[in-house]
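Slide 14.
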Amino acid sequence: MADIPIVVVAYNRLESLKRILASLSRGEYPREPVELIISIDRGDNQEVLQYADAFPWPYGEKRVIYRPENLGLKRHILTCGDLTQEHDGIILLEDDLVVSPDFYRYAQECCAFVQGQDRIAGVALYNHRLSQLTEKVFEPLEDGFDNWYFRYACSWGQMWTKEQWALFKAWFTEHSDYDFAASAKIPEHIKDWGKHSWLKYHIAFCIETDRFFLYPRVARTTCFSDAGVNFSESENTFQVPLMAAGRTGALRLSRLEESKAVYDQWMENLYLVQFLGKDACIDLYGAKTDFEGKDYLLTTSGVEGGEVICSFGREMRPQEWNVLAEVPGNVIRLYKLSPNAKKLPGTRSSRAGDAQYYIRGISYPYKKDVVSLFLRETGKKLRRKLTKQ
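Slide 15: predicted structure.
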C-alpha cells in the first residue's frame, strides 16, 4: 500500500473543519496506519487549533501543523503540496469539503494505476456536473470506465503522487510570472481569478504541457463552498452526489489513449476529433474565442466565412452523442474555415435553444421562481467580482 497521508487545509472556519473531520472519521480505511495532517494557516484562529489538537484519530498518526506566519491560500496550498516529497503522495482536502466513505480506497487504487503515466498530472476526487466556463450542465460521455479525463486541475479534493507534484512545482518555479491575459489557451473565466489562486497555475501547467487530471464518474468529495477566500457567502451550486460505502470490486480505469471521455480546458470532448477524422476545433458549448489554428470547427455557433460540411441536431445527451449517432438537424455544424472566418454572436433563438436543452426538471409553476433565482444569482456574481477587485 502506498504511503499517502490525508492533508486537511484549514484557516479560520471552525464549523467547516468539524464537518470535514467528522466525514473523515466515517471513511473506510485499510488495516495499515493512515496518517492525518491538519495544516492551519496562522491567524486569529485559536479555536480551530484547539479543535484540531483535540480531535481523535484512531487510524494512525495525527500531526497538526500551525504555520509560523500567515501564508495566504495560494502559498498554503503550495506548501502543503510539498509534503508529497516526504511520502508517496498526498490527498489534499480544503476544509469546506466532505468526503465519501470510499475516498481513501479510491485514492489508493488510482495511485497504483497512474504510476509511470507521465501525462496524468493528478487525481481528482470531485466530479464536475457543470461546465466550468458556461455553467451549463456537463455530463462526460459514458465509455465503460469508472473515470474520465479533463485538462483542468482539481481543487475540491485531489491526490498528487510525489512525481506528479515535482513536475508541476518545477514548471511553476520557471513560470511564476505566467501571462494569463495574453494566452489564447486559457479560458476567460480563469483569467478573472485573483492573485490568491494557485489553481490557475496548475491548470496552465496542464494546458501548456498537454497533461490531464483523472476524474471519477462518481465523486468522492463534494463542496459546501463555505464563505471564505473564494466565496463571499455560502452556496450549494457545486454540491454533487457521493459514492456510498461498501463498494464491491476494483475500479475499472481507462488509460488516456483508450478513453472516449477526454476533455480539454473548455470541457470539449477531444474524442470527436478522432471520430470526425478531421483536425477540428471542438466547440459544442460555443464558448471558444479562438480556432486553435485548425482548418475545421465543430460548433453550435454561427460562423461567418465558413462552409458547412455537415450538421447535426441536439437532442441526445451528452452533446457529443448527437455527432456520434449522426442525429439529423442543424444545431451542431462542422465548418471548413476560410482564413478570415469568425464566429458570430449568439442570437435570441440560439440562446432559447440552449435554455431548452440545458434546463431540465423545471415545470411551469416554478418558472417565476427561476426569475427570482436569476436575480439573486446575478447579485451574488456582482458581489464576487467587486470582492476580487
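Speaker note: Residues 363-388 form one domain.
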